[in-house]
Amino acid sequence: MSSLPTASPVLAPRITAPSSRWIGRIQRLDATSLVIAASAATLLFLVLYPLFWLFYGSFAYGESSLSEVLVQFWNLPGLAHAFENTVWLVFGTLPLSFLFALPLVWITTRTNTPLKGMIEIAAILPFITPPLIGAVAWALLAAPRTGLINVLAVQFGSSTPIFNVYSMPGLIFVMALYLSPFVFLTVQAVMQRMDASLEEASLISGASLARTARNIVLPLSLPAMLSAGILVVTRCLEEFAIPGILGAPSGIYTIPTYIYYQAISYVPPRYEVAALLASGLMALTAIFLGIQARVLGGSRQFTTVSGKGHSPRVIRLGRWKYVTLAYALLYIILTVVLPYLVLIYAALISKWGALPFPENLTFAKLAATFDPALSARSGLINSLILALSGASLAMVLTLAVSYAISKGPPLVRVVLDFVSSIPLTMPGPVIAVAMLWAYLHEPFVLYGTLWILLVAYVTHYLPYGVRTIMGSFRQLSPDFERAAAVCGASRLTGFRDILLPLLRPGMLAGWMLMFVSMIRELSSSIFLFVPGTETTAVTMLELWQEARFSEVAVLALTLIALSVCVVIVVRRLSGPAYLSRHQ
Amino acid sequence: MPGVRLDRVRKRFGDVVAIDDISIEFRDGELTSVLGPSGCGKTTTLNTIAGFVDPEGGSICFGDQLVADAATGFAVPPNKRNLGMVFQSYALWPHLSIAENVAYGLKMRSVPRAERDEAVMRSLRRVKLEHCRDRFPHELSGGQQQRVALARAIAYSPPIILFDEPLSNLDAQLREEMRLELKELHRDIGVTAIYVTHDQAEAMSLSDRIVVMWGGQILQSGSPRELYEEPADIRVAAFLGRTNVFEAHLVEHASPRARVSIEGFAWPFECRATSTARPNSAGMLSVRPEAVSIKPAGPGSAGVLGRVRSAIYLGRVLHLQIRLDCGKTIEAVEYARHTWNVGDAVVVAFDPDQCFFIARSAEMRQASL
């Protein structure tokens, strides 16, 4: 070798550096680290503190031993029935929701049915309708004596009501209608993007259409179907509004409604029963979500969705396409048209059961609903306060937690990721019971104020926010932040100037999701409200029990209108599309 | 302009050693490439210099200024290191206009408005993009985005600029153009530039100096010519262009020429050798494809005999694979004047000036440095 190595060892004197490792560390702490630490602490407290109380309440409360509690528990009146009903509800809704949704998936992805685009949008529309409003609408339509369908039937000479929605079949029917869009969306996403060459390869190999469907399409869409199925099951387990409106009048309780009517509103309240049931419900949800995660994780091995390839082949139906169109229209009538028509009818009609002629219509109920004497006005104000502040608070917390998860040291990531997903396993009633235990007791007594509702909402919807924002974070190359740092921006400045604007579409979407969910929240609010802190959904349930149909309908339509307005405004705000699909 | 010095820097990720105790000086005002295959630690080295990764051992200085010292846990954060950097992904902020992207570093330095605008225009003019100042990154082509990234890095005149494979996302032709432009730019602004790449042609054409990394260690550093003609390690020879490798023994050494014996060949070959190589030491003989000359074998022709195994015509040059009679297959490149057919019998000769003997001891010494 002829030349000396240019990689000469460093011999020049050093500038003195701080003498201790720790001083070095502390000097490098900046405002960002503090924000992250504070938000991580808040998250841990919000989730773990009520969880501790929930378990404590389940297993360690009172003088009696666990075995005594379990014996008492076993002998509770009606509990066995509630279990039985829940099982019926799950096993009835599961097939029926698929029965509603799968033909629609097939119609929109594989056939030449007319108005396909419109059907696709309409199939997701029931999403906008919260289950409470769907249940109210169907009760207005098919309650045994007052339901419009039955009223009409009697007028046309029927001696008995033709469809009684206050029954297990009625419950299952409305539940399946409400859950079918979830199934539709999950399965349709896979079917739509499934590489057509997979099917064509089967057909070229000599398989018939039916065989191709059985051997190729079905197995490939199985993970999605399983995932949708699990979603339906968990929703059935946690749903409060539908069994509350449609089941409770005829004494059909499921676990969530049993917890409310037979444990929390029981005199004296059986809080430990509620805690034990809630823990069980949580465990069950956790198991199902675990299975779902495995199914979805495993399904990545199938490269059904390659991003390449062309769209699936379309089957020409000929005249049959009008049959499929009729099916799709019937579905839309059942899920969207009839419920909304009956709500509008109920809001405007002067006398229940009258024909909707102009002379029978009145706007008087609109004003009457918000009469200060009723709780509707304060309920709406409470809901607005809660949804606005809850969504905003949750968003700030979410942002900090997501930042900590994506940038923090490995241990912090794992812990925060895990803790922030715990509320996913806690449906509304479970959250509410945990909140009651945690915030009825010293040192944090929040019960009886709006605060407990706010804390419950933030805790409940945090995981959804974290998932949305984490999705946006993952899209952002770490180079964006590094480039800012190299240019001289501190972490906080870089976050403000670079990350925040880039995360804006994700944040707005997350905020919107939370706002819309919070403003209609029923399943935990019903446990946590006291007179004066009712929310809109709680008011609706109360008014419903007083048989004030038109007020309920007005409130329902107000809620929907509010949600739609927020969605439109937020869409406007979220800026140019390229921001959300760079890199 | 300060140089950049790394002193015994180490970094692991879990069980993987990314940088294994490297010491090196990047001289001020020079453009030094860090060259190596992916996973060799070159990007981690760059990231420790930038401050995105803190070393676990060793220290880093910019000139006399200590910026990181693992012994005390001291590390200047990236935003206080006064660097420029061009990223492989360009990392142009999609929500800011081109001018705003370029102005960001100046804004962070609180440069007054008028001066800032002036500097932005100057850098954009430097990369010939002044007409794009009000556009947004997604409206530019890949090559233009690359130039904006460059303009952003030079806008606030940092004394040290880091390049992380900046040209790897461009197509071949654009890449060659940009090499020339980058070289010219570097000559004009004269900063200390550290350029990470896995493309040896890029490193050769751009650099004042090249550092070859392998497995977290530095194999060799020197000017492109030194590295190509006198590789200290057979891996350097193989990585910088193609080469044919023979196991060899040094027979005699009279600097600069030497003679080596290769197993399977009766007579010794003439070549060059590292000055430290001692007679009888074992090592490798590197024979560049362009050092191989080929003649048709005639009756009574002497030399290394072989047959053409494949001949690939590439227009300007011809790539040949020749199976020698001793069983080894070698590569050869020659100007495409002669047409060879597969199976032709040939006589092969090596140009001694382009054959280099690397003693094994030297190679070992380098590997453990």
Explained architecture:
The complex is a heterodimer of chains A (583) and B (369). Chain A has helices spanning 21-28, 31-59, 66-74, 79-110, 116-124, 131-142, 148-155, 168-193, 196-204, 209-238, 241-247, 255-264, 271-298, 321-348, 364-369, 376-407, 410-421, 428-440, 450-475, 478-486, 491-519, 525-528, 536-545, 549-573. Chain A has 24 helices and no strands. Chain A is mainly α. Chain B has helices at 42-50, 98-108, 113-126, 142-154, 172-189, 200-206, 224-229, 234-239, 360-368, and strands at 4-13, 16-26, 31-35, 57-62, 65-69, 74-75, 83-86, 160-164, 192-197, 209-214, 217-222, 244-254, 257-262, 269-273, 282-287, 292-296, 304-313, 317-324, 329-335, 345-350, 355-359. Chain B is of the alpha+beta class. Chain B contains nine helices and 21 strands. The chains are: A mainly alpha (583), B alpha+beta (369).
Write a compact overview of the structure shown.
The complex is a heterodimer of chains A (583) and B (369). Chain A is mainly alpha-helical.
Task: Please tag this protein with its features.
heterodimer, A: 583 residues, mainly alpha, 24 helices, 0% strand, globular, disordered N terminus, B: 369 residues, alpha+beta, six-stranded mixed β-sheet, five-stranded antiparallel β-sheet, 21 strands, 25% helix, disordered C terminus
Strand content of chain B: 35-45%
Number of separate helices of chain A:
24
The counted number of beta strands of chain B is 21
Supply Rg of chain B: 24 Å
Helix proportion of residues of chain A, in percent? over 70%
C-alpha termini separation of chain B: 28 Å
Tell me about the largest β-sheet of chain A. none
Shape of chain B: globular
Strand order of the largest sheet of chain B: 7-8-9-3-10-11
Assembly type:
heterodimer
Count all strands of chain A and give the number: 0
Largest interface, counted with CB-CB under 8 A? Answer: A-B, 48 and 65 residues
Overall mean pLDDT of chain B: 88
Instruction: Please tell me how large the radius of gyration of chain A is.
Output: 28 Å
The H/E string of chain B reads EEEHEEEEHHHEHEHEEHHEEEEEEEEEEH
Are there runs of chain B of 5+ residues with pLDDT below 50, and where? 365-369
- Which band does the percent of strand residues of chain A land in? under 5%
- Measured between the Cα atoms of the first and last residue of chain A, the distance is 46 Å
Following the backbone from N to C, one meets helices and strands of chain A in this order, namely HHHHHHHHHHHHHHHHHHHHHHHH
The percent range for helix content of chain B is 25-40%
**Stretches with pLDDT under 50, minimum 5 residues of chain A:** 1-18, 301-308
